[in-house]
Amino acid sequence: MKTKNTLDHQKIEKRWRLFWEKNKVFKTNTRDFSKPKYYVLDMFPYTSGEGLHVGHVEGYTATDIISRMKRMQGYNVLHPMGFDSFGLPSEQYAIKTGKHPEGFTLKNIKNFITQLKMLGFDYDWSKQVYTCDPNYYKWTQWIFIQMFKDGLAKYIDMPVNWCPRLGTVLANDEVINGKSERGGHPVIRKNMKQWVMDIPAYADRLLEGLKSIDWPESTKKTQKKWIGKSVGANIIFKVDGKKLSFDVFTTRPDTLFGVTYCVLSPEHPLVNKITTTPYQKQVQSYQKACSLKSEFERTEINKNKTGVFTGSYAINPINNRRVPIWISDYVLVTYGTGAIMAVPAHDERDYQFAKKFNLDIIPVIKGGNPKKQAYTGEGAYINSGFLNDLDKKTAIKKVISWLEENGFGSKQTSYKIREWIFARQRYWGEPIPVVHMEDGSIKALKKDRLPLVLPNIKDYKTKNGQAPLDNATKWKNVVIDGKKGVRETSTMPGSAGSSWYFLRYIDPNNKKQLAGKKLLNHWLPIDLYLGGPEHSVGHLLYSRFWNNYLFDKGIVPVKEPFKKLRHQGMILGSNNEKMSKSKGNVINPNDIVNTHGADALRLYLMFMGPLDADKAWNIEGLNGIKKFIDRVWRLYVEENKLKNENNQNLEKLYNQTVKKVTEDYEKLSFNTAISQMMIFVNAVYKENIFPKNYAKGFLRLLNPICPFFTEEIWQKIFKKKKTIAYEKWPKYDKDKLKRGSIDLIIQVNNKTRDVIKCPTETSNKKLKTIVLQSKKAKKHLEGKKIEKTIIVPNKLINIIAK
Ligand code: ANZ
User: Fold this and answer.
1) Closest residue (by CA) to atom 12 of ligand 1?
2) Which ligand 1 atom lies nearest to the CA of residue 230?
3) Pair type for strands 179-180 and 175-176
4) Rounded distance between C-alpha atoms, residue 215 and residue 224, angstroms
5) Which of 329, 361, 545, 791 has the CB geometry, 3.0–4.6 Å to 344, for a possible disulfide?
């Protein structure tokens, strides 16, 4: 074979791409239980028309390295890929062009697959799933039906995030700072009959589960905060002069003596009943103004507090104090009970409100300066009757017992997490498989009616909140058992299909179940899941919820699907800014594969810095990596270097390199592993010979990052008939880790007489015998008696003799 000093990456990469595909090298036999399993998962991409981003390539390379290493370590590895293919990108394309989104989506999928193959990822394409495939969403619909039957999928009236511009309802995690995550359009709150998933029912389990999984602490914290568990009390306040009462939720029942007013959220059902005539006008106009505000605007702590008085008073049960009832948008209808007792002396928001509207402030805890600001710390209770002199914990306990004994409330836990809004007034999503019957009941479709396929329509736009499927008259009007009904016309949110795709990969063609039980038992949980930190809530919480539910149903064997999770950082443009078309700093992976090769792109992305850090693209860095690849290439192709003999000087470094690279890969610390390999390559150049056994071992270490040219060397230079992908992972020799040689100085009576090569870390006893073999030293010892030996480890031995 003719070899060149620089490798022809285009030719080589094409050769091995075809070889792997033709020989089905990476097909996983999921039924082979003879080896230990390793399931490594990537967050699958949205099928946007833009194709792969270098950020995708970063994360996918990281998992590919693990997948390849684990395979070489003897695991049966499952490393699948699929596509999140319902949702906005295709929907918007359809609206713009009037064409059905399916064609566009499938074209994008094809493009993604070509790109992923071009980059050499070892995906088993026979396991591919995509969420808009009826054979897949049949099971998304089936899961929905189970959850509907179990009361977790509900059709209820509730306040929702409504985006007038997108004409649809959004989930809380799709709203950022009061704007839609996609497009940045304003979002308002309004009441609507909605399909929701009762994720709060799983709040405690989702909190508990966090304890057992190996996830980044920051991600666990984000989920904890999102679930937002607060322990406190519900306290009943009676409305003065009326046969009405309301509950407040408080985490500080110990401050009950300091209540000077109450606040109902503007949407609280009691507001209209208690508002007295003189205040009706201002209350109504305030309510209207609030409905146009987003939750973010309402709860911002520093914003100017607003509110109006209802004209009614409440009675504080603990001291019968009569306190005014206000309404204000800083109290949310969806949290706790939608009503609060205000303690301005010890709560900042209440303090600002009281100051603005000139309401009383009664301190009940000593500390701070009540004239200047709320005191939120601890201290002795004052003005608090039977609570005075207690500590906080006891005070809380005492108040709660008092409330319970007197029928004025009880201990209560509240959660911030809300129902997951599970319907969109859009076309490109899974149809919700239920029928609204004439008598008001809701019927779920029978399993043999699934999948309920999305019908073809002409107009994909949402108009005035009406779902596009509302126009599919023929499709939506049905008769079940002789009774008329109308199909649900909203579709599921994008996060539906992505909440369980990792289960389907295990058994993608199963026609009877979402996946076979035996296979699920064997392959779950996922050993490593990698993706961006932007999914910390949303997807990562929804899929834990579904998996916990499926565990309860006895379908999956584990509560937590993702045993270990890691995030990749963002690849920024060379100007240190987020890559975007408008900034002109986008790097297209296709271009780099053309100019530098897939191996170089992969190696560069892994060398840029720690995997989870944000890193800026730098062409110099990429060029340097390309040079390194050529340097490695030359080590193998310049035939005079490869030798059958061993090299003592490389022994220690080689073993250290195997150890460090193996351990670093395991930790996903790829940049440090690569540094070590660079050190090794430099040392080989210095020695000018490359012992073949080290050359083969090193090739295996590098193969997971650079699969193409290492395969070329393996099969073409070493003339192997099979792929390198299933070769054994190199082992290191513990004994050789420390050994290397040092120049040991030998002194006799403080005078240097000889310098000899000897292994480092040689024991003192052995040193003494080695030294006596030195002829030069021996000469000076003749006829003398050794009295003492002084040893400076790895440096010097001094023999004192007379
Ligand atoms: C009296 C009080 C006194 C409160 C005090 C705090 C400090 P977390 O910890 O986030 O759960 N609250 C209750 N429901 C609310 C709602 N729907 N909208 C806005 N605020 C609400 O917060 C619990 C506290 O937030 C509750 O305890 C209540 O104010 C307020 F010194 O009650 B507290």
Assistant:
1) 340
2) 11
3) antiparallel
4) 13
5) 361
Exposure string for 383-414, b = 16+ CB within 10 A, e = fewer? ebeebeebeeeebbeebbebbeeeebbeebeb
Can you read off the two tokens belonging to residue 506?
A: 């295990």
Measuring CA to CA, which residue among 323, 390, 408 is closest to residue 361? Answer: 323
Ligand 1: which residue has its CA nearest to atom 29? 250
Ligand 1 atom with the shortest distance to the CA of 334? 17
Q: Name residue 193's amino acid.
A: K
User: C-alpha dihedral over 70, 73, 76, 77, to 10 degrees?
Assistant: 10
CA angle 677, 682, 684 (to 5 degrees): 95
Which of 166-170, 387-391, 450-454 has the least mean pLDDT? 166-170
β-bridge partners, 616: 572
Rounded to two decimals, the pTM is: 0.87
In sequence order, the 6+-apart residues with CB closer than 8 A to the CB of 26 are 20, 79, 122, 123, 124, 725
pLDDT of residue 2: 42
Which residues sit with their C-beta closer than 6 Å to ligand 1?
230, 249-252, 255, 331-332, 335-336, 338, 340-341, 343, 346-347, 414
Q: Residues 202-225: pLDDT tens digits? A: 999 999 999 999 999 999 999 999
**Residue having the nearest C-alpha atom to atom 19 of ligand 1:** 331
Helix (H) or strand (E) holding 191: strand 188-197
Question: Which of 225, 247, 252 is the pocket-test mutation for ligand 1 (most atoms within 8 Å of CB)?
Answer: 252
> Cβ(354)–Cβ(360) under 8 Å?
yes
Cα–Cα nearest to 365, from 349, 346, 337, 340: 346
Distance 198 CA to ligand 1 centre (A): 23
Distance 220 CA to ligand 1 centre (A): 24
Burial class from Cβ neighbours inside 10 Å (0-12, 13-18, 19+) for residue 584 reads exposed
Find the 343 Cα to ligand 1 centroid distance in Å. Answer: 10
Amino acid identity of 724? I
Relative to beta strand 245-250, strand 175-176 is unpaired
3-state secondary structure of 165: coil
Please name the amino acid found at residue 130: Y
3-class DSSP state of 60:
helix
Report residue 634 as tokens. Answer: 């030359």
Cα of 350 vs centre of ligand 1, distance in Å, is: 10
Q: How many C-beta neighbours within 10 Å does residue 753 have? A: 19
Q: Does residue 239 carry a pLDDT above 50?
A: yes
Atom of ligand 1 nearest to the CA of 232: 27
C-alpha of residue 254 to centroid of ligand 1, in Å? 12
Span 438-458, pLDDT tens digits: 999 999 999 999 999 999 998
Please measure the distance between the N-terminal and C-terminal CA atoms of the chain and give it in whole angstroms.
68
653: confidence class by pLDDT, cuts 50, 70, 90: very high
10 Å CB burial of residue 192 (0-12, 13-18, 19+) is middle
Q: At what angle do helices 88-97 and 101-118 cross, to 10 degrees?
A: 130
Lowest-pLDDT range of 1-5, 34-38, 175-179, 497-501: 1-5
Alpha-carbon gap, residue 620 to 601, rounded angstroms: 13
Distance CA 295, CA 332 (A): 8
- Kindly report the protein residue whose alpha carbon is nearest to atom 27 of ligand 1: 250
pLDDT in tens, 130-150: 999 999 999 999 999 999 999
Q: What value does the CA radius of gyration of the chain take, rounded to a whole number of Å?
A: 35
User: For 59-73, how does the pLDDT look when each residue is reduced to its tens digit (9 = 90+)?
Assistant: 999 999 999 999 999
Residue 147 tokens read as 């959850």
Q: Which residues pair with 409 in a beta bridge?
A: 235
Report the atom number in ligand 1 closest to the C-alpha of 330. 19
Pair 637, 5: CB distance under 8 Å: yes
∠ CA 683-688-693 to the nearest 5 degrees? 75
Distance of CA 549 to the CA centre of its chain: 20
